[in-house]
Amino acid sequence: MKIVASRTGGTALLQLEGRLDREGAERLSDALEEHLHDGVRSLCIDFSRVTYASSAATAVLTRCHQELSVLRGDVEIRSLPPGVRELFASAGWNEGLSPAAAPGQIPIDRRSYWHTREDFAASGQYELSSCVPGGALTCRLLGDPARLTGAPLGPDDCGVAAFPRTGFGIGIGAIGSDYRDCRPRLGELIGVTGCVASFPGDGARLPDYLLGGASVTPSALLASGLVCEGAFAQLMRFSPRQEAGAVPLSELASVALDAVGGRAAGLVVVGEAAGLCGAKLRRSPVEHGSPPRFEVPEVREWLSFAPERTHPVTTALIAGVVSAPPQGPVGAHLRPLGPSERLYGHVHAAVFSYRPLPQRTVELDDLVRGLFTDHQLRDVLHLVWDDRPHGAVSETALVRGVGWIAPITRFA
Asked: What does 237-286 look like in DSSP terms, one character per residue?
């Protein structure tokens, strides 16, 4: 079996030649997986030179069809020879079939109109589409970050936040609402659309999570954090320019701010990670006799931080607040996100096993819940920009992904 592939953007044409038996089907499966991993979401497969096909071939293509359906992609079989057509017809395939016409296919939302932004991005290619016209977020500030390194925190220094499906939240916290129960478990936390993940600071080896439902709204005790509620105004999808290889987090944040035309924005991104630059607390900041110390060498007892990017070839759920130079109380929660003095933020990430991502319109709630239910939660991190002068890993970078953006119109 010979496979000749050509690609234009997110579309690939595969021309097959020879016998598509069990061995040939495995080669085709490997080629399809490689294209999906590289961001292809539209496939055309030319069978005009195939002399034989077995049921192994239809099984591979059915599996690819189902995966592209979830990713809101499309696949087309072209030029089936007479001797092969009957096999595919019996498996539910017809010449020229596209996923939009296949039984059980998730319909592609063609009502969204995308426009490309190429005027300022150095590393990425971006397309934006309207989600909710006039969508905006209100951001609630919880706790005082400066208190984390001061006197030991008590119940009055922490706040309880609910995580409904209409927003997101990040901070130092623990799933639950009782101070005595939560205090030994305070650590990095992220919640998006009613799904909350945290890395407990009690010596746990694995992160924990809780999914909300019709009758359950997860709550978390936060020693310090930001909780945003409302509606997202813009949907964004992105991929790297050929010469770049990956898109840095600071560029995504800049695009988000520009897209909503404001001084502050809430951002949720699901992306395929090239590598993450992040840190997490090793110990709860309120469970020990002394407050956290972030000076060398004491910092090693409190903070876990790798000298290089971590978690390559994973899928990251990222949420946070990004801003131009902040004013008012929110400034205590934000730090520089890159070398520019005009970009600040506070961003967390939940890290999952790898999953190819859709490049068309997709529902945030469905995508997030799919990550928690179908993939392994590996880590929860506070993403940082590393500004050390020598050997620094700099910042998080993503290969491709989708994002939801809204202006923050009020801080409370």
From this structure: EEEE-TTT-SEEHHHHHHHHHHHHTSSEEEEEEEEEEEEB-EEEESS-TT
Tokens found for residue 111: 């009502």
- In tens, the pLDDT along 78-111 reads 888 887 877 777 666 654 443 333 333 333 333 4
Q: What is the pLDDT of residue 15?
A: 93
Q: What is the pLDDT of residue 285?
A: 81
Write out residues in the chain with pLDDT < 70, as ranges. Answer: 70, 72, 90-121, 149-152, 287-301, 359-361, 387-393
Measured at the CA of 159, the angle between CA 153 and CA 161, to 5 degrees, comes to 145
What's the rounded Cα separation, in Å, for the pair 28 and 253?
38
Dist. CA 238–CA 257, nearest whole Å? 15
**Single-letter amino acid code for the residue at 340:** S
Tell me: do 254 and 362 sit in the same domain. Answer: yes
Q: Output the pLDDT for position 69.
A: 73
Residues 341 and 370 in one domain: yes
Tell me if 167 is assigned to some domain. no
- Inside any domain, residue 144: no
Strands (DSSP E) found in 41-181: 42-53, 74-78, 115-117, 124-130, 137-143, 159-162, 167-175
Q: Specify the pLDDT at position 35.
A: 86
Q: For residue 298, tell me if it sits in a domain.
A: yes
Closest CA to 404 of 367, 374, 356, 372: 367
In a domain, 175, yes or no: no
Co-location of 233 and 93 in the same domain:
no
Domain of residue 61, CATH code? 3.30.750.24
Same domain, 128 and 262: yes
Number of domains in the chain: 2
Q: How is residue 299 written in tokens?
A: 């910092």
Amino acid at 245: G
Residue 330 pLDDT: 92
Query: Which domain does 285 fall in, by range?
Result: 115-138+180-411
Beta bridge partner(s), residue 370? none
